[in-house]
Amino acid sequence: MSIRILTVDDREGIRAFIKDVLESDGYGVDVATDGKDALLQLTKAEYSLMITDLRMPRMDGMALLKESRTRYPNMPVIVLTAHGTIHNAVDAMKMGAVDYLTKPLESPAVLRDIVRSHLPNPGLTAAAARVDKDALVATSKSMVSVLAMLDKVAPTDATVLLTGQSGTGKEVAAARIHAKSNRAGQPFVAVNCAAISPSLMESEMFGHERGAFTGATEQKPGRFELAHNGTLFLDEVGELPLEMQAKLLRVLQEQKFERVGGNASIEVNVRIVAATNRDLQQEIANGAFREDLYHRVSVFPVHLPPLKDRKEDILPLTRHFLVGISKKQNRLLTLTRDAENALLSHHWPGNIRELSNTIERAAILCTPPRIDAADLVFATQTKSSAPSAHGGTEAVSLKDMEKEAILNALKDTDGHRKNAARKLGISLRSLYNKLKEYGID
Question: Which of 154, 353, 371, 376 is deepest in the core (most CB within 10 A)?
Fold first, then answer.
């Protein structure tokens, strides 16, 4: 299906602007003058995305959004809102809109970025990029290729090995494989192999019978049993002890096991997705990982690139996080150009996880609705840093920054707590709870 976009607005100038920009990118664009006109257009063609104003005659954007979500639940909807009515955009996103654009529309680049980030069925070009609800971004060619591989292997029962640095989204990728597989209606069980004590690993994986060991007061099913007919995600599989690796290999070969302290053989039908940030080939050479297990779990390897190698995804990812924060805080947040440049210049050693944390901190520290470069506190460069014993600086915790933001809000509002709460984007009750928590009089 070719990509067609429906834009809905009662003002000809806005319709013409959107149509000209998007048609120059090769999309098919149809226009409608209000909600009723749009519903008629939606019966005549299949659209990949709709952009609609909120204030229109006959049928407004809210009514159109509600109706379109019922009739066409898979079609993303972007709403247009003026600066003075941003609360309406928040309400629209709560009803299912995926994003918003603020008027007046002056930047073709912003329009292009937002539209591209929500187009379904990504191809191998940036023009078909999208942001999934699970935060896997496919704007860069490398990530679009990853999504294509995930979607190709998902319907099979092949064992998948996801590799990449910490924070690159391996668990999200595993969940995507499960969601797009024939097992989607069955359990998705995630196990962090690095977080389980070696002494408890066998019981956690295979379960135990009552009385199997001290403290085993009742029968307990293991992760394999819980994942029967579904998907078992073995995160940080390279951290498994060698003894456990041998037992895991047997289960993968035979699809059966015994609970700890039991003799009955339990058969399971489980699809395995594994992940690691280690070089398993090097671990094999070091004698820390079994080569036969490696070949079992790496039938279909997929490597997730670090964020520094996919710069095109930084701003779309940031918008995705901001939309989520805006819904939670009931306010819209935007980035200044300086903030965008700062994000693009950072090297992101913590990858997507670091980006998410950075944006969450900035949402606390900023003066809404804009996040500026000064509000961005990177993991390797904190905004408010204290001298350390080594003569450098040491990181400030999120609680410290939250306390600082509250104090600054109180200072800016001359101690007026209701205005400070409004400035922070939280309820007055939440502010009082925070004041009590931090011992602020």
Answer: 371
Place of tokens 């693009």: 344
The answer to whether position 19 is within a domain reads: yes
Distance separating the N- and C-terminal Cα atoms of the chain: 61
> Distance between CA 126 and CA 147 in Å, rounded?
13
Whether this prediction's pTM lies above 0.85 is answered by no
Q: How many residues does the chain have?
A: 441
On whether the CB atoms of residues 277 and 166 are closer than 8 A, the answer is: yes
Number of helical (H) and strand (E) elements in the chain, helices listed first: 18, 20
State which residues form the domain around 271.
141-303
CATH of the domain at 45: 3.40.50.2300
Tell me if 383 is assigned to some domain. no
Closest listed residue to residue 393, CA positions, set 415, 409, 378: 378
Say which residues have a Cβ less than 8 Å from residue 99's Cβ, sequence separation at least 6. 76, 78, 79, 93, 114, 117, 118, 319, 323
Give tens-digit pLDDT for 193-202. Answer: 888 888 888 8
d(CA 129, CA 39): 26
